[in-house]
Amino acid sequence: MDFQWSLFLESLPFLAQGAVVTAQLTVISFVIGLVLGTLGGLARVSKNPVIAGLAVFYVTLMRGVPLLVTLTFLYYGLPSAGIQLSAFTVGILALALTNGAYVTEIVRAGIQSIEPGQMRAARSLGMSYGRAMRRIILPQALRRVLPPLTNEFITLLKNTSLVSTIALTDLLRVGLEIMTWKANTFSPFAGVALFYLCMTLPMQWVNQWVESKYRIR
Amino acid sequence: MHAGTDGGIPMVEIKALHKSFGELKVLQGVDLAVAPGEVVVIIGPSGSGKSTLLNCINLLESFEAGTVRVAGEWIGYMPGSGGARVKQPENHINRMRTHIGMVFQQFNLFPHMTALENIIEAPIQVLDLPRDKAVARAEALLAKVGLSAKAGAYPGELSGGQQQRVAIARSLAMEPNLMLFDEVTSALDPELVGEVLAVLRQLASDGMTMLLVTHEMGFARDVADRVVFMDGGVIVEQGAPAEIFGNPRNDRTRAFLRRLQTH
Question: What's the pTM value of the predicted model, to 2 decimals?
Fold first, then answer.
């Protein structure tokens, strides 16, 4: 084992810079994924077969293609179609689209888990479908999908490591560079693992906080 | 002629209503008129189409043929030229539903809101009532159903009878012209039925137009202006409670009432 404390400590500031990129990728693509997933989930339960069908197509496509393939396709494929995007944009795009597909299914399941009587009661009071969704169904569904959404966030955070393959200097990439440069694996990678682990912790706290705040009594 | 067709515009006017769930024909030509202020109780064996009939009146269920009017306005569809049916726009039924209160067997209170929030939600959101006015209205209604102390309670903290009374208050907060009650005591423990029936009696004596599907025959006898017996998707017999319960003319009505008595 080639672990050295000095090298471990020395790599931390560099890893922190990579962690910032990883955090940016995670948060931005999670927020976009949430928006996509909420719209997708609403589309999935729509009575309009075209809208519902489009959502099924989107989910099938993004869930069926490995993220690494999507990244590679967008990064190396799009320029050949004359579309030049930065590595960061491609990273966000691939992560958000994939995350959005998973969130779509989470939101759909959340909406469908709410008793149909809730929608009937809301509609009987004169609420439109949209208002009933926004005021009655989604707030209840949100509480139920928090645990799977937290899971999804953590998965996304770890999946950002795949962007190291498209020349983005994220946390993993910095670790790989230190490894090559210093010819030492354990010291920088202990730091890499520690950073990923620590970054998932706040999300668990957020989850606990939101769950206790929105507890249904 | 029944009260529902005497003079003025009926509160509810249903003609030749047909409704199927796939192959199953649930309503097979129902005609019914309810006058303003009238209390009509619908009885009949399960599967006879009673609840479906109520659900057609506020279009929670669509129907294939026939017409429904509430206070003279077409519900869901209006007759077009040449016998065609013209679908009413979505915002029309939304507006009509604000005049038609409905209370459900399973209460269907919003579990993420307190009793008070349940009651003020639609008046604020749908009627654009200012919050203070909605709260004042809700507090008066909670007092009316005897639950002033429970304004801040969540549905999960209330008994079934209390939840159902909040649900009634929630419907009344829209100040409807017509109330539909779909087996509202069927999900309650027996000892909680009385408190809900008391609210319904009060409402009837206030002059509310009410259509109730219920298995509470004693209540029907006391409160109904008219009892309607349904079986097989049609109205078999209707009349004053004394007639229906005391001297039913139709064999099916007799058989149904006899079955109830043996319990």
Answer: 0.88
